[in-house]
Design brief:
The protein is mainly alpha-helical. It contains four helices and three strands. A three-stranded antiparallel sheet has the order 2-1-3. A hairpin with a 4-residue loop joins β1 and β2. The longest helix is centred in the middle third of the chain and has 25 residues.
Length: 133
């Protein structure tokens, strides 16, 4: 297994773990929101989408072939875009009150971008072309 696939699997695992960690805290209402627990807000549960797509991207990292690699590229890009959307949604200020952002919100985005880069750089088991002099 190539280094890109290993780093990609680690990045996907970090995205999944970050969905369970606190993303923001609103001090005035004493609320702590994670990706999966957003009681008392209209955020929904975007961590479920993170976990689902991260799991599918992780499974596709283990498969060889052109079609799984192409699907994985699309899904990893969607995962990165979705985590960026979560960052924008959760970290915005409303009515003069800004939430305290936690590291898991930013780490989730960095890991999703890392997974996307690893998918883009994976060569699917083909040997690198050698230049002849």
């Amino acid at each position: 297994m190539s280094k890109n696939r290993i780093f990609g699997l680690i990045a996907v695992a970090v995205v999944i773990v970050c969905a369970f960690l606190p993303w923001i805290t609103i001090e005035s209402k004493h609320l702590v929101f994670t990706g999966l627990q957003t009681n008392g807000s209209y955020f929904g549960e975007p961590g479920k989408v993170n976990v689902f797509f991260a799991a599918v991207v992780g499974i596709l990292f283990l498969l060889k072939g052109k079609m799984p690699a192409r699907i994985n590229l699309f899904l990893a890009a969607f995962l990165a875009a979705w985590t960026f959307r979560n960052l924008l949604l959760f970290s915005r200020c409303e009515m003069g009150e800004c939430p305290d952002r936690h590291i898991a919100l930013f780490l989730s985005l960095v890991a999703a971008l890392g997974a996307f880069v690893c998918v883009a750089l994976t060569n699917n088991g083909k040997p690198a072309e050698k230049k002849e002099n």
